[in-house]
Amino acid sequence: MQNFNFISKSLDRTSDLGLRLAKLSRPPLLIELVGDLGGGKTALVKAIAKGLGITQTVTSPSYNIHRSYSSPEGTKLEHFDLYRLNDDEIVFNELAEALADEKAIVCVEWAQHFTDHSSDSRLTIECHYDSPDTRRYELSATGKAAQTIISELKR
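The structure corresponding to this sequence follows.
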């Protein structure tokens, strides 16, 4: 398993990471975001969306649980936030449908609530709140596509 660590001392640096991830990501892909409250999970998803060319305002789906966005090129960004979720079969079915979409990049905040990984390739990002100005991201890859992303990030 390949790993990549990234320290962000500003929202701009976090955005830089998200833009790089968007450039390197090809659907279908699962991006799991786990870690601390305030760790920068939503900020990272916003930057990924921007990097995909999505012009809609991306917000945390904490209460809606799922939001869907489309890029001008037809790539879908499926954004889930499972923070408030314990066991909801309907949401897990929605998530399984999103993962089955060959045109989707699926970002799942609080992915530890979804343990039945049905994706051969996934990028897991542990998001850590180190201080009010510092976030630490630890990326790991499972599957060839996600491992390629890590390899490219290391360059």
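The chain has four helices and seven strands.
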